């Protein structure tokens, strides 16, 4: 708007501010850790074997599942992403986390490192799916995923800018998951 109003100094200041924000939110991934993360992301896009992942998930979370998966089932990363992003399948989040990092706890470390890299000041993750732990333990009940509204904005901006393909999934009203033999519906009532 400033540029079109021929206020070039204000337009340049806005451009510089946007570039500064971009440098903070989207740092260069040309280092070893960045390349390693990219390889892991590409690996997830292949397919995920759920045998050990499901056993581990059920031991720690029980059988309360949005998507009925069984041990030995082969599910593509695309189907797991649709199950995660449409009906909010916690077991899909855990399966993807375990597939990428070998365990949910290792993936949580990556989540916290990425939050720090993005400049999120209050974000702290304890699991891959975001649901609270309803344990009766006072210590466990204090270890909940959290972030302020501004950190949520930073994360949302990063996702839609760095991974615009997410809209191909989140804009679906429903989807069929072949490996699971089921249809899932988007829980976003605004669609």
Strand content: 5-15%
Count of individual helical segments: 9
- Residues in helix, %: 40-55%
Q: Tell me the overall shape.
A: globular
Biggest sheet statistics: 2 strands, antiparallel
Question: Which blocks of ≥5 consecutive residues have pLDDT under 50?
Answer: 45-51
Biggest sheet strand order reads 1-2
Q: Write down the Rg.
A: 19 Å
The chain-level structural class is mainly alpha
Write a structural description.
It is built from nine helices and four strands; from the N terminus they run ααβαβααααααββ. It is mostly helical. Strands 1-2 form a two-stranded antiparallel ribbon. A two-stranded antiparallel sheet has the order 3-4. A hairpin with a 4-residue loop joins strand 3 and strand 4. The two termini are 31 Å apart. About 4% of the residues have low confidence.
Descriptive terms for the model:
single chain, 191 residues, mainly alpha, two-stranded antiparallel ribbon, two-stranded antiparallel sheet, 4 strands, 53% helix, globular
List the SSEs and their pairings.
Elements: H1 8-25, H2 32-45, E1 47-49, H3 51-61, E2 74-76, H4 77-85, H5 90-101, H6 104-117, H7 138-142, H8 149-162, H9 166-170, E3 174-177, E4 182-185
Antiparallel strand pairs: 1-2, 3-4
Helix pairs in contact: 2-5, 4-5, 5-6
């Amino acid at each position: 708007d400033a540029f079109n109003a021929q206020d070039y100094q204000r337009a340049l200041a806005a451009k510089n501010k946007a570039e500064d924000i971009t440098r903070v939110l989207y740092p260069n991934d040309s280092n070893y850790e960045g390349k390693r993360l990219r390889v892991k992301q590409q690996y997830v896009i292949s397919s995920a074997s759920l045998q050990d992942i499901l056993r581990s998930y059920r031991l720690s979370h029980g059988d309360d599942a949005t998507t009925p998966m069984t041990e030995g089932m082969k599910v593509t990363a695309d189907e797991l992403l649709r199950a995660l992003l449409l009906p909010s399948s916690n077991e899909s989040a855990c399966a993807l986390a375990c597939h990428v990092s070998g365990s949910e706890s290792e993936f949580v470390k990556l989540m916290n490192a990425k939050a720090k890299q993005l400049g999120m000041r209050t974000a702290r993750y304890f699991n891959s799916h975001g649901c609270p732990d309803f344990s009766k333990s006072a210590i466990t009940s204090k270890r909940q995923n959290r972030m302020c509204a501004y950190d949520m904005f930073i994360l949302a901006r990063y996702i839609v800018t760095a991974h615009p393909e997410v809209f191909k999934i989140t804009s679906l009203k429903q989807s069929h998951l072949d490996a699971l033999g089921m249809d899932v519906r988007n829980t976003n009532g605004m669609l």
